[in-house]
Amino acid sequence: MKTLNEVLQDWEAVIGLEIHTELTALDTKMFCNCRLSHDDEPNANVCPVCLGLPGALPVPNEKAIQSIVKAGLATNCQIMRHSMFYRKHYFYPDMAKNFQTTQGPVAFCMHGHLDLEVSGRGAAERPDCAFGEAEAQSLASASANAVGLSTSMSEHMPEGGDAVARPKASSQGTYDTANLAAPVRAEDGSYTVPIRILRIHMEEDAAKMVHVGGEEGRITAATESLIDYNRCGTPLIELVTEPDLRTPEEARLFMEKLRRVFLTLGISDCSMEKGSMRCDGNVSLRRRGETKLGTKTELKNLNSFKSLHDGLEYEICRQAEVLEEGGVIYQETRHWEPSRKRTVVMRVKETADDYRLFPDPDLAPFDLTDEFIDGCRAEIPELPDAKRDRYVAAGVKRADAEQIAGDPEAAAFFEAAIGGLDAKATQTVANLVVNELVAYLKAAGTSLADSGLAPAQLASLAKLLAADAISSNQAHEVFDAMAETGDDPEKIVDVRGMRQVSDTGALEPIVDAVLARCTDQVEQFRGGNRKVVGFLVGQCMKESRGKGNPKLFNQLLTSKLEAM
Hints:
The chain has helices at 4-10, 62-74, 120-123, 133-146, 151-154, 248-265, 305-324, 370-378, 384-393, 398-405, 408-417, 423-444, 448-451, 455-466, 472-485, 489-495, 504-517, 519-526, 532-543, 550-563, and strands at 11-22, 78-79, 82-83, 85-89, 99-103, 109-118, 191-204, 208-212, 224-228, 235-241, 277-287, 297-302, 332-337, 342-348, 358-359, 366-367. By secondary structure, the protein is of the alpha+beta class. The longest helix is centred in the C-terminal third of the chain and has 22 residues, at 423-444. The radius of gyration is 29 Å and the shape is globular. The relative contact order is 0.11.
């Protein structure tokens, strides 16, 4: 089988995502008052409504509607004033009433977009990015189109903005995307591409099934299957992209960005490990230069960023191999097996007709008012991209700013710590958050709220580093002691005698002694080997018993060596 890079030289991958997110921040289910919980005893939180017993009538959760409107506003979607719920029929034990309540032709949120920034190794996956002014103008046009309706849909939009045509609830095949320009690469190889969002609709989640004895938790070879209906009826929003993604890395980055947005909105914990955020990936291939879409396959329930990337990568390579050997790609749902690094067939893909969709007679249509929508908009906090840009303007490196801005808890801690600090100390705090704080929380298996750490402690540690009172290696030791004891870094440094000597007069004799002793290294420097300065700094640090300022040692050594 060819590698991904080899395949993408001849074939263009067309990828769309369906991202399912449970609204875990809510207290109750979508259509009843049962409590939302992942940790209770199985089947403890059920009632006649979520079990679909005769005579039970659903009542919509207003806070869930507020949450999906916020999600739509944060992803540049049109909020549809008029919409309604449908019944999607299927026969499987994870939904006791044999249908799922979901939205029909018009969702609460339609036709949005997110701009995706791709850099580093991920940018190398896409071979069709160009340089130049002409491509930049095409990209600007494509980005402008991404925020509006496609021609095929706008023809069906009456005055007032209520869509009446039924777009397919699928992330491929709705619109032709041949007119989307290839993104433009910057000098560092990175690029930005607009990814259109077809819709975000509301539905209820199904029950959790546990297949006992099956391979990798699947029903195949299972001795029995257990059902926990606690999850049944949980409010769930599904975001469907247009097929604008072209590489597995773009798909991974899109889902990561969406997760950061939803976490910032506070509508879900977005835990992929617990299943509150999961993804289906649709992918097809076509020869480069062609505009007709190929036959797609769907990868179901990808529950990690790595599985999303690796599953799509395998499926792209598999499809290319089948097509190049003269075979046929069938529209089907496939399962990704991480341990075997392959996809396997689950079932032939259903069509919309199989679900016998029709309006739910027990739920009245929704008419959202401007007042309701404006109220949701007023509750949206500063979003990750804007927060990242603000941090960068304050002197933080872009990569650090993006990581911090995407975690609401870390961002609040960071902002509390940098109050009154200059740009150098602010970047030092960012380094501590990204490198020390995150690593400590992960190793300790705790949250920031439960760690006992205070922003003032991090600010104090950053000031010591920025003033060169301690080295970066010492900072790691001080952080661990601070986390363990709760003491202020200043106290820890003084009690342990860790404060660095930055007095030139005290360090110069040490430098002179090391240079007098290390004549071989001095000759190597004269011969053009500047790397020996690092060895000499180490000798100076040993001579000073670790208390000398290594940066100052480096400066003194270099100055004296160059003068010899």
